[in-house]
Amino acid sequence: MKISFDNRMFKKLGVLIIFIIKAQIAISQTQPIYYDDLNLDIFYDLAKVRSLKSDPGFYFPEYEFFEDYKLKGITLVANRPNNFKDSIWRDRSTTKLKLKKDTSVFFMKYMVENINTINICVYQDGVYWYKEFVINEQGYQIPINEKITNWKRCELNPIPAAKIHLTERGNLIVSMQCFSDKTKASRLVTADLLIHDQISVKKSVNNSFFNQALEAPTLIYKKYNKYYSSTIISGSKEETDEAQRSNIYLQGLSDRETEINVLTKIITTALDRYPFYQERQLDKVRLRAKYQSLIQKYNDTQQICKLIDELKKFLSEEFKDPHLQLLGNTEECKEKPDNSKKPRRPFNLYQINGQLFVAMVNDQRYSELLPIGSKVLSIDGKSTDTLLKKAFPFEAKQNSTKEFFSGIAKPAGDSTVLLVNTQIGPRLVTVKYDGEFKLRSGSQGNYDFKVIKSNVAYVRLSSWTLDVYTRFINDLENINKSKKLILDLRGNGGGAALSVFRLLSLMVNHNSELYETLGEDSSNRHKTVIKSNNFRHIRGEMPILVLGDRNTACASEMFIQSLKYNRDNVKVIATENTAGVLASRFDIHFPSGITFSNNCFTSKMIFPKVGCLENVGISPDIKVMIKSVFDLKPYNDVVLQSALIN
């Protein structure tokens, strides 16, 4: 058979080849970067003031990554009861350097006793930069690290008692004024006080993921010996990468078409390297084929919005992994915000043992019509049996408790018809979404400490932020006076692993192995080992009871499993297993506003004795049965009650 080609076919083929070459060149020019802070000129350094002596006996805890603790402090303000003459502190620097807009930073690592407000002023060249800092908790504080030119600018001295003399007008002056209860002794102690220039610099990301995704030359990985915390004795390079580079930005993307090509290649690489196909019982071949079919179907730049929507749906529905998802939208795909369409929930429903109940009413107009604990028979004419089977297809009817969300969040102009079974029989209630919602008040913020019944220390953590360690240390004396510690991690979906490591260091009394990870080259395993804190510690015999639920995930699960393995007298109390979602997450940010969150840079965590916990979670040592909504938090809270009696 003779095959002939006309000129038009050659032209089309040529255009296609040129397009492919251009696309490949554009992709190869894409550079993944991260931002790191670089400290430059120092205007003022308290440590170099020879007239001030540092005192031992302190423990200023680490806060940021790559930061160490300090055991000495300089007292700036100290007051005896009813004596406030020393509430002012000031010093000067003869530096010739000038403060710069957007880069000059005030940094102070400090602790306070009986001080409720600190006013800080920085003066130079006739201008006063001033800010008031309100102290909410006594003890060691979260370090101040702020751009000075973002503070209030004043032409007159905002701290008149800290006088600036004519001969000092050419100097840089730092002054502070503290306010407290005059009847009590007070003091302000610092470990560091710096005024310096700080800029954000771009650094290249060195990771084999991008070598594969962007088809760049394979880089050689050197042995990594510097960890991001002195708490860590050994770990892996990829964990230190996560500490520095959890947010990665792509530059060099010249147009939207190139950006979408890079996005699809990065997701292709993620699907190839996804570590949990076995644990989540996923068919890798089927999912990759479905993905390829999807991106081929929407390969036109005019279909970008549809492609992004379909990719979001594909990742969400197929993987059901909160660490693997596509977020945000390109500018042309964003919808204008419309508060009238924002979903609202005037009531909360819970599924308990295969039945649906009213758990909370947020619109007081319906508090009597929808009594707490009422059984819901139907929603908008659909039976709850049908709705529950669709929402929870794999849930067992017995010993199952879960909040029900499907179809009850609607915009302000909408309504829902509930058929509820009350004490006087079935009742139809039409709930409108246009009212004012009053949510039940509870503990605010990320961290909460209190001493409850019978001298029990109770700490609630809603997220593993870096301030957890500092705040826990401030409460450590009261915790050690208590007969046991309850750690409430219900709903805690994770956070910074560094926060976990630091808190664990207070609870273990020896070098402790947490887990192993497989190296990037797949040739060996890296053990993550932390050391015990030599200066602050929870007493060894104290019982620790950890409260969890199905939303206790990631860093929280790492903490629980490591604590159980390395310490006696630890029990987990919950209604069910924890989430079973443990991985380091990296966010790849595209110029258009899309973010691809994934857990494909690092390998799975292997815990001693139990192995990988992905999609399994941690089983409670004491399993609590929920029999009615009144057993839930914030009512009787039988999980907490169980911890109090065990």
Describe the structure.
By secondary structure, the chain is of the alpha+beta class. It has four domains: 36-201, Jelly Rolls (Sandwich); 203-221 and 238-333, no CATH class; 345-432, Roll (Pdz3 Domain), CATH 2.30.42.10; 447-645, 2-enoyl-CoA Hydratase, Chain A, domain 1, CATH 3.90.226. Helix content is 21%, strand content 30%. It is built from twelve helices and 32 strands. Strands 1, 2, 4, 7, 8, 11, 13, 14, 29 and 30 form a ten-stranded mixed sheet that branches. A six-stranded mixed sheet has the order 22-23-24-27-28-32, with helices on both faces.
Assembly status: single chain
Regions with little confidence, pLDDT below 50 for 5+ residues: 1-5, 15-22, 220-224
Structural class: alpha+beta
Level-1 CATH class name of the largest domain: Alpha Beta
- Specify the overall morphology: globular
Supply Rg. 29 Å
Strand content: 25-35%
DSSP, total strands: 32
Q: What's the structural domain tally?
A: 4
Sheet having the most strands: 10 strands, mixed
If you average the pLDDT, what whole number results? Answer: 88
CATH topology of the largest domain: 2-enoyl-CoA Hydratase, Chain A, domain 1
At CATH level 2, the architecture of the largest domain is Alpha-Beta Complex
The CATH superfamily label of the largest domain reads: 2-enoyl-CoA Hydratase, Chain A, domain 1
Q: What is the helix content?
A: 10-25%
- Report how far the terminal alpha carbons are from each other: 86 Å
Number of helical elements: 12
